[in-house]
Design brief:
Shape: elongated
Distance between the termini: 19 Å
Oligomer: single chain
Number of helices: 1
Radius of gyration: 19 Å
Order of helices and strands: EEH
Strand order of the largest sheet: 1-2
Structural class: mainly alpha
Number of strands: 2
Length: 79
C-alpha cells in the first residue's frame, strides 16, 4: 500500500498501487487548477462589474495576459 498525507489538513489517503496514487494526484491537480481558473474568472468579473457600475466601461481597456505556466510534468508531479 501507498500512503499520502495532506500536509495542510493531515488527512491520510491510502492507495493499493502506484497507478492508483498517480491517478489520485492527477485528479487532485486538475481540481486545484480548475479552482484557480474559477478564482481568476470571478476576480475579472468583479473588475468588469466595477467598471460597469461606475460608468467606466466606455473609457477603459482591460488587458489580461498570462504565460503558459510550466509543463505539467516539469516538477515530477505526474511521472
Amino acid at each position: 500500500d501507498f500512503r499520502l498525507v495532506d500536509k495542510h489538513t493531515g488527512e491520510v489517503f491510502t492507495f493499493k498501487d502506484q497507478e492508483e496514487l498517480a491517478h489520485f494526484k492527477y485528479q487532485r491537480y486538475l481540481q486545484r487548477y480548475l479552482q484557480t481558473v474559477h478564482s481568476v474568472d470571478e476576480s475579472v468579473g468583479r473588475l468588469l462589474d466595477y467598471l460597469d457600475d461606475n460608468g467606466l466601461t466606455e473609457n477603459t481597456i482591460v488587458i489580461y495576459t498570462s504565460d503558459q505556466g510550466f509543463f505539467l510534468g516539469e516538477h515530477g508531479w505526474f511521472d
